[in-house]
Amino acid sequence: MPDSMFAGSGRPSLRYAGALDMPAGERFVNPLHHNPEEAELMLIAEGEGAFIFDGQRYFAGPGTIMLYNQGIWHDERSHSHIPFRTLYLGIANLQLSGLPPGYFIVRNESPVISLGEHYFSLAQRFRELVEAKHSREADSDLLADHLLMVFLIELARIIHQPKTPDFRPAALASSQTVHLTKRLIHERYIHDITLEELARHAHISPYHLCRLFKKETGHTLFQYITHYRMDVAKRYLTTTEETIANIAGLVGYRNESYFQSLFKRCIGTSPGRYRAAPAHK
């Protein structure tokens, strides 16, 4: 891409934005059509499907973004055996330097981009755009268009970055995957967390995630989940008056007796004695 990412005097405008959430057993089907006035983006958060762009068939799964050049004929069909969740945008007045109006990429390039470690930051910007477009606050359209410019700059840097073999060291990519998995655990420890859920959010296989996590941290995923829950429990015990039964529920355990035995095994003392220790008063 040239130094100036955008061409022309106009500015891209967010025409529409939304989310699609299809449960398992239902299939998203959008037969052959085109959008002559908008370029579109679709981010797949969960699920997979077959997509036809300009007569070429592509497969896309979670963690990918699809680039719909303006006016390109396309057909979209999800696989129905798993849920299909996406976010999508329609953009008017898109003009990237060196490309035809309404184009993200040249016509013969693959429109399916695997985001890898960029997925989480881009997904967050995507959600912000959807929220802004549906907001009823004053100047929400202006805010959406400003957010769109930031989003497009980040996206263009990802899809048009130099394709060098060692663009990102494998060790750094592995570290980022583990970091993002930890963050998900920190946010969802109160719920039952499955290996499949963690792997789906990390966009790697469960087997690979287990190996990677153990190599990076020295702990298995479920050892880490347990120890994090115990850290949260210690915080509740020392800073609140919550009962031990309530704390068990707050850190993801329905059975108080199981929580107490697990706490003692991990911490070396019971929750009650931990709370009563002078060092914690």
TrEMBL record:
Key words of the record: DNA-binding, Transcription, Transcription regulation
InterPro entries: AraC-bd, AraC_XylS_family_regulators, Homeodomain-like_sf, HTH-like, HTH_AraC, RmlC-like_jellyroll, Tscrpt_reg_AraC-type_HTH
Residue span, HTH araC/xylS-type domain: 179-277
Identification of the protein by name: AraC family transcriptional regulator
